[in-house]
Amino acid sequence: MVIPRGQVLSGTELAREIKNNLKNDVANLKRKYPGVCPKLAIVQVGGREDSNVYIRMKIQAAAAVGAEAEHIKLPNTATQDHVLQELRKLNEDSKVHGIIVQMPMDSVNDIDSHLITDSVAPSKDVDGLHTINEGRLAIGDLTGFLPCTPVGVLELIKKSGAQLEGADAVVLGRSKIVGTPVAELLKWHNATVTVCHSKTRNLKEKCQQADILVVAIGRPQFVQADWVKPGAVVIDCGINSIPDSTKKSGQKLVGDVAYDETKEVAAHITPVPGGVGPMTVAMLIKNTVLSAERSAGNGNVQWNLTPLPLKLLNPVPSDIEIARSQTPKDISVLAEEIGLLPSEVSQYGSKKAKISLSVLSRLKDSPNGKYVVVTAMTPTPFGEGKSTTMMGLVQALSTRLRKNIFATMRQPSQGPTFGIKGGAAGGGYSQVIPMEDMNLHLTGDIHAITAANNLLAAQLDARIFHEATQKDQALYDRLVPKIRGIRRFSKIQLRRLERLGIDKTDPDSLTEVERSRFARLDIDPENVIWTRVLDINDRYLREITVGQSPTEKGITRKTGFMISVASEIMAILALANDLRDFKERLARMVVAFDRKGNPVTADDLGVTGALLVLLKDVVEPTLLQTLEGSPVLVHAGPFANIAHGSNSILADKIALKLVGADGIVVTEAGFASEIGGEKFFNIKCRQSGLVPNAAVLVTTIRALKMHGGGSPVTPGAPLPSEYTHENLQLLKAGLPNAVRHINNVNKHGVPVVVAINHHTNDTKAEIQLVIDELKKAGAYDVVLSRHWALGGEGAEDLAKAVARAVEEPSTFQFLYSLDLPLKTKIETIAKEMYGAAEVKYNPTVDRKLKQYEEQGFGNLPICMAKTHLSLTGNPAIKGAPLGFTLDVKDVSASIGAGFIIPSTGEITKIPGLPTRPAIYDIDLNIETGEIEGLF
Questions:
Q1: What one-character-per-residue DSSP string does 800-831 give?
Q2: Closest to 624 in 3D by CA, of 906, 296, 932, 328
Q3: Closest Cα partner for 121 from 308, 362, 474?
Q4: CA proximity to 674, closest of 739, 723, 615, 584
Q5: Which of 200, 436, 500, 668 places its Cα 20 to 30 Å from the Cα of 461?
Q6: Which is catalytic among the residues 19, 39, 58, 286?
Q7: Is the distance from CB of 889 to CB of 899 less than 8 angstroms?
Q8: What is the pLDDT at residue 422?
Q9: Gap between the Cα atoms of 755 and 745, Å rounded
Q10: Residues 6+ apart with CB under 8 A from 23
Q11: Strand 590-594 relative to strand 370-376, pairing
Q12: Ranges for the Tetrahydrofolate dehydrogenase/cyclohydrolase catalytic domain (predicted)?
């Protein structure tokens, strides 16, 4: 057999093939994800001409495949901190997919090149030089970015047709950039590798044994022909300049191998130039395109989520004992597992983190996952375990079915935490951890909302005072003062002028009438609707009088406090689609009416920008985890009685992108289907544009018995015997309540899976009765769930049912059209969701509804304020009554949030503390630093 000799392995030709393929890949990427274009950032320090040549080659190669390349030039006076700062910006830029720092850095200052390469995010390290990517290669994990020259060498060897598996390979050179990673790559492709260097004995003899010889020694024409085994593949990675009088420049480029002689011996050999060099550039662009594909398609990637094992005990310990028995993952580890970039995560300690809205920009073209809402039947005063069920479901979907799963839920108020109801982190073996953080402060969002709300209240009362104590000109002069002899309108004042139809920007050009219109809001103190808030249950703040100090000159008025989660700002946070939408909604908030009945907004008071400054971090949801290590986004907590009672749209949107097309996001709606569920569908989904794929309806045997005529249940008191013993007759009588809730969800075209939240006293006969009857009533499925006692294991059947339900074709529809009159929308909800026969309005409500429609608010959705303890407006009426009259006793408008609020009864907007609140049990152990007595 004749062994071929002198076959030239052209890197130029192979690089051209690779770039042609990449051109198609980039075109397909742009078609699949409009707006995405692979982008390489090249950071250069100084201006070495040889570096400029290489940079131009990289820019040209990027352009040839349809990618972008940005050349960031830093002066040779740049410091190490300057370079690091530039890299931080590029790491955080979602439009940049690859980052390289051109070496060597030509700076007059000392710069640690290793520190610089390790400061490039591993996910953007397209040079493959980060320690993490090097480490992955060392252990055979080829999923990271491979260094460009070594992988180019590998591609050239493959192009030669040489057998890698079992081949004897010699790598001459052990540099971090070429020699060492080439050896690792060959090893993991099953070659037998020898690494040689300047200290190697019998170097020539070792090279003569090589089937594959890779030379990267950095010495011109070092390897001679007699060093090479006949028929070997020789890859020359060197590039050296030597004297040549025949050249105009007096120099010529050669490799580390004596090419002319060696090609007569070798079967295949790379030339210099035109060998490894073009491949290095091609592989750099390939890595950049790969990074862009990973970034754009991140939502399609199966997470490498590590479940946390549970240590199940029977009897089940207290919630806090269970929470403390689990060691959570470091939040940075969880963030990496679910595809978040380091720049998108702001840690608050090691167990919680804020998530940047930039995730939505990075993944804007990625598909959404499936969307599931958890609601409930009409609960007992205990609540029926909606949050606990959601946590169990998420744990089961994640750890048992191995799907990409996110839970999104509200942040609990401190009012219930220190009162009697308790927290909202779930319970038993289905919880969010750390549960103390979840129920106490978290990342401070509610406190920031409290501050913003009360800043607006303070400005409102101050404006009433100043208008009452100053004439028009003095008021105008103080609102638009001369600063250093110049008078200017602020941006927010120019917006007010625009709303007034005054087309002037010079404060001195306004007429006396225009100045008066601009300066005087003429707020009616008897028609102020904005109140102060506090995140504590405090009954004595329900009604107060302000302005009693002598300094307020007798300008007093009655007002009151609400609990912080009842603030319209909280509802706005939950319904905003982005930061701009958030700001615009804050500006539109109606806080009072003037003496002519016209609305006065936060923007009129000049406070919008200040509110946004206080709330700038509040727009970011907080990442926590379940007991079994599944991700949870906690964000916003609007009061479910008077607002829509769901977590934020922003959290849902981020989660839906991160889970990808095959993943599921499970969110919650406040209270039962006729309140939180109805508002979720007709307010939240309408404003977000998101379409739910399925719903989970939480029921309990206990609640069904109560609706069947069981004795009243009272928190803190023992359950009557009918709840702790089998009673099929009582249970059957209560089933119509659950049936009504199933119908409520089905009317929105969403399949509903009923979850029976298991309690210890439930009997097999009772459970089977509920399953049989609710399946007949139109539930997609009815499943017993033991998540409280068993965690994800106990919710596996529920998870399987939900996974099937989300694959059903969507027929989602709203309950009513926004074009209908306000009364028609109210009556549609009352009749279709509650079972009412008619709705009655008192004269005040009639007047207000007419006024809202005249002011242009008639096309807003309805957010009914109603007791959660009954389908009617009377909390004492249980079951599923029909034909009753619903009385609307008052109505208000949340214009910033974007809904009208009819009230069907007295809704306490700031609860009071009971005789024995949870305060008695809560303490801090000063020896261990642990919180005691918290659930």
A1: HHHHHHTTSPP----SS-TTS-HHHHHHHHII
A2: 328
A3: 362
A4: 739
A5: 500
A6: 58
A7: no
A8: 56
A9: 14
A10: 64, 65, 66
A11: unpaired
A12: 9-127
Q: Say whether the peptide bond before residue 230 is cis (omega within 30 degrees of 0).
A: no
Distance between CA atoms of residues 701 and 721, nearest Å: 13
Within a 13 Å sphere around the CA of 694, how many CA atoms are in the beta-carbon half? 26
CA distance 193 to 171: 7
Residue type, 915: T
* CA-based nearest residue to 390, from 432, 356, 354, 361: 432
- CA torsion 764-766-770-776 (nearest 10°) is 90
The one-letter amino acid at 796: E
Structure-token pair, residue 556? 């007093």
Three-class HEC string of 243-262: ECCCCCCCEEEECCECHHHH
Which regions in the chain score pLDDT beneath 50?
1, 299
- Mind listing the pLDDT tens digit for each residue in 124-137? 999 999 999 989 99
Number of Cα atoms under 13 Å in the Cβ half of residue 890: 10
**What CA–CA distance (Å, rounded) separates 182 from 176?**
10
Active site residue 705: no
Q: Which of 25, 127, 256, 781 is catalytic?
A: 127
- From the list 102, 221, 431, 687, the catalytic residue is 102
Length of the chain: 935
Distances in Å between the Cα of 477 and the Cα atoms of 481, 513, 518, 602 are 5, 14, 11, 21
Pick the closest to residue 302 from 25, 805, 661, 29 (CA basis).
661
Q: What is the pLDDT of residue 920?
A: 78
Looking at this protein, which amino acid is placed at residue 787?
A: H
Single out the residue of 779, 817, 785, 787 nearest to residue 798, CA to CA. 785
Would you call 813 a catalytic residue per the annotation?
Answer: no
Question: Cα 290 to the chain's mean position, in Å?
Answer: 24
Please give the single-letter amino acid code of residue 671: F
The strand pairing partners of 168, in sequence order, are 192
Query: Beta strand 482-483 with 39-45: parallel, antiparallel or unpaired?
Result: unpaired
Own/partner long-range contacts of 21-24 (Cβ < 8 Å, ≥24 apart): 22/65, 22/67, 22/282, 22/285, 22/286, 22/289, 23/64, 23/65, 23/66
Residues 6+ apart with CB under 8 A from 875: 867, 869, 905
Q: Which residues contact 125 (CB under 8 A, 6 or more apart)?
A: 99, 117, 132, 133, 144, 145
Q: Which 3 state secondary structure label does DSSP give 760?
A: coil
Phi/psi for 430 (5° steps) reads -135, 85
pLDDT in tens, 905-923: 887 888 888 777 878 778 8
CA 390: distance to chain centroid?
18
Q: Is 127 a catalytic residue?
A: yes
Beta bridge partners of 213: 170, 234
Per-residue pLDDT, 1: 46
Q: How many CA atoms lie within 13 A of 162 on its CB side?
A: 33
Alpha helices in 2-124 (DSSP H): 11-32, 49-65, 80-92, 113-118
Q: What share of the chain is helix, strand, coil (3-state, %, to 5)?
A: 40, 20, 40
Question: Which structure tokens are listed for 482?
Answer: 């001369």
DSSP codes joined into one string, 425-485: SEETTEEEESHHHHHTTTTSHHHHHHHHHHHHHHHHHHHHHHHHHS-HHHHHHHHS-EETT
Spatial distance between the Cα atoms of 394 and 385, rounded to a whole number of angstroms = 14
